[in-house]
Amino acid sequence: MTSSSEVRALSIGPAAALALTAGVTLRVHGVFPSAWNLQIEATQDFVSLVGPGGADLPHAVVLERAEHVRAWSPAAGTPVRCDGGTLRVQAAASEVRIDLRPAARLPRRTLPSITSLGAAHAACERRLAGLQAAAGTDLRIESLAGAGAPATPLGTPLTTAALGLVAAARTPAALPRAVPSLLGLGPGLTPSGDDLLSGYLAGTRASSRAALADALGEAIERDLSRTTAVSAFLLRCAVRGFWLGPLVDLAEALAAEREPDALAALGALCALGHSSGADLATGFLLGLRTSSCARQGEKRGRPQ
Q: What is the per-residue DSSP string for 39-92?
């Protein structure tokens, strides 16, 4: 006899809310200690079932307790049924029912406009450099600023490809040649090159460089087959304007020149994954800096 268990969802992120329509078919893609990744068959998008600590993910369904995520281990490929109000999945000898009806539908958070950079941005770059050195990450913001050579073997191609992206951003028609060198570059479900691209796209959006951001988004979507399924989905989220909570917190603090809040948000962002959050922060701060330099160059070149 198959038993059943029911758990309650606390919140549903904006990307997940769009995906979880009645009758949609999902399958378990991967099970981790802190999350189940469910892939939507029709679109190849993802929904993640997480504990309360994952509430900042736009594609997350947050369950009441983290223990709920660890309590069952459905096999990869297991179908998940959605009737609009409930997710049903067979996990071992127990059917798990996830009640979505009481969950808060979280709004999409937009990036603020950041038209100038001040002390808070400089402080974040310094703090990020220290965090990356302590963690031994492959991608380093100091290397991208010319302040030091890459510290790891993978750091060399990452730095070269990132600087190629910066150069291509001056002539958006060159982006289709620069972006593929970053897509899928690095190990793991979300390679460092992909995280940097997401961050750089956010930096151009926040800098109100709409034409460049659109061109970069198109170049990213053109070559998503070069990376993992999970990372391709997260890049699509970035192109669609679904951002991680700590990234928006960082952007808002930088826009208001609130240095302590910016440093706190940067720390929260860098705590995500082994290096994913730090790589995303690198791309974001780099995108803001290069956009600021571009604006200054345009002003100097403007006829008086």
A: EETTT--EEEEE-GGGTT-TTEEEES-HHHHHH--PPTT-EEEE-SSEEEEEET
Mapping DSSP to helix (H, G, I), strand (E, B) and coil, where does residue 260 land? helix
Report how far Cα 150 is from the mean position of its chain's Cα atoms.
23
Q: Is the sign of the CA dihedral 117, 118, 124, 126 positive or negative?
A: positive
183, amino acid identity: L
The pTM is what?
0.93
CB 61 within 8 A of CB 50: yes
pLDDT in tens, 203-231: 999 999 999 999 999 999 999 999 999 99
Are 88 and 2 contacting, i.e. CB atoms less than 8 angstroms apart?
no
Contact indicator for 13, 26 with CB cutoff of 8 Å: no
Provide the pairing of β-strand 104-105 with 60-63: unpaired
Does residue 59 contact residue 48 with C-beta atoms inside 8 Å?
yes
Give the CA dihedral 216, 222, 223, 228, nearest 10 degrees: 90
